[in-house]
């Protein structure tokens, strides 16, 4: 239930954990933005995924607010899906219109696998560069 989360303005819980919630937002900023970018790159290699919609969904999720949604915007944009209002807090990134099907789940899994390979390659490359110095 979103309304009862600690550190969010809901009467009884408004002050409790506010610092922890804000620190979580700050520390999640960079990883969340990177994950969305990697998913945009992954959409280039997934059949029937739209890199342009992935980019617009990612950009729509870059604004202030729930940082956990950064990768979600790229994913739903690439697959042409509409995120639920509950998941977005009422604001849906991207212009998705469809509901997820079994085929979409398969494409999402492929996107996650490709994104993981891209991230692992980037990390290995950085490790080799720092080891060479």
Describe the model.
By secondary structure, this protein is mostly helical. The chain has helices at residues 18-42, 51-60, 70-79, 85-88, 102-132. Helix 1 packs parallel to helix 3, helix 1 packs across helix 5 and helix 2 (51-60) packs antiparallel against helix 3 (70-79). The N and C termini lie far apart (49 Å).
Could you give the topology of this structure?
Layout: H1 18-42, H2 51-60, H3 70-79, H4 85-88, H5 102-132
Provide the descriptors you would attach to this structure in a database record.
mainly alpha, 5 helices, 60% helix
Order of helices and strands: HHHHH
Relative helix content? 55-70%
Structural class: mainly alpha
| Shape by Cα distribution | flat
Question: Which residues sit in consecutive blocks of at least 5 with pLDDT less than 50?
Answer: 85-94
Give the beta-strand count: 0
Total DSSP helices: 5
Tell me the strand percentage band. Answer: under 5%
Measured between the Cα atoms of the first and last residue, the distance is 49 Å
Give the mean pLDDT.
78
Main sheet properties: none
Radius of gyration of CA atoms, rounded to a whole number:
17 Å
């Amino acid at each position: 239930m979103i309304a009862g989360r600690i550190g969010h303005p809901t009467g009884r819980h408004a002050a409790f954990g506010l610092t922890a919630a804000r620190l979580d937002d700050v520390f999640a900023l960079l990883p969340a933005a990177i994950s969305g970018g990697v998913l945009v790159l992954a959409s280039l290699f997934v059949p029937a995924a739209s890199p342009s919609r992935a980019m617009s969904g990612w950009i729509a999720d870059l604004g202030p607010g729930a940082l956990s949604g950064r990768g979600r915007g790229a994913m739903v944009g690439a697959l042409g899906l509409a995120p639920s209002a509950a998941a977005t807090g009422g604001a849906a990134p991207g212009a998705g219109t469809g509901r997820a099907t079994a085929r979409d789940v398969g494409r999402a899994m492929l996107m996650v696998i490709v994104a993981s390979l891209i991230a692992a390659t980037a990390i290995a490359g950085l490790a080799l560069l720092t080891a060479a110095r």
